[in-house]
Amino acid sequence: MRKGRPTGISARRNSSSDGPVSQDWVRRFIAANLPVLPVPGIPDIYVHKANPQSGLRRLAEQDPRFGSPYWAHYWGGGLVLSRYLLDGPESVAGHRVLDLGAGSGIVGIAAAKAGAAKVYAADVDPYAIAAIELNAALNDVTIDTILADLTKSEPPDVDVICVGDLFYEAALAESVIAFLDCCLAREITILIGDPWRAHLPTSRLRLLAEYTVPDFGEVTAKTRPAGVFALG
């Protein structure tokens, strides 16, 4: 996992060199072992999704960079935020959008399909970056990937930041909120999708919409409420 503090968002575009397992090999593995499926409740978006036969353990055995494969699964916050962007494209149409902690890139893909002028997707996991590139191509959209922890950087040069499900752990939530406060000071709009995780800063949020969606680790037939919020 690499983290960086580059100064401009264009400079942060992913240009990682090959590690113990090359990014090209990772892309081939994902394409061959994670089937392409429609996103639950968003049939216009398709992504590579892990199943019990995907063999992700093989990646862990071959690459010390391999961490928790959050990018290979659906998250309730990402699903609800993607639905919101597609149902109300005016929130991102014509704007520069950052999908923070992008995972599989579903939110960034939805923003691009909703008419965003430019979409960036940032994650600290090189496997997520590979998945985002594949999933963007599947959906015929263009996304600039950024392999970095942007919460350690200055606010990016964007109009909207989309945050799908980054409040599941206390330390992470604290760093994300500190970063988003700096972005608010630059008058960047913050949209958050979350199924009311324990560390969601509810006192600072305005509910914009609510949907029922599947969540991480659950079968897609089982759903739970999740909201889309504006941070203020």
From TrEMBL:
SUPFAM superfamilies, sorted: S-adenosyl-L-methionine-dependent methyltransferases
This protein's record includes keyword Methyltransferase: yes
Region named Disordered: 1-20
GO function terms (MF aspect): protein-lysine N-methyltransferase activity
Name of the featured protein: Methyltransferase
PANTHER family cross-referenced by the UniProt entry: ELECTRON TRANSFER FLAVOPROTEIN BETA SUBUNIT LYSINE METHYLTRANSFERASE (PTHR43648:SF1)
UniProt keyword Transferase, yes or no: yes
Gene Ontology biological process terms from the UniProt entry: methylation
Source organism per UniProt: Rhizobium tropici
One Pfam family, short name: PrmA
Alphabetic keyword roster: Methyltransferase, Transferase
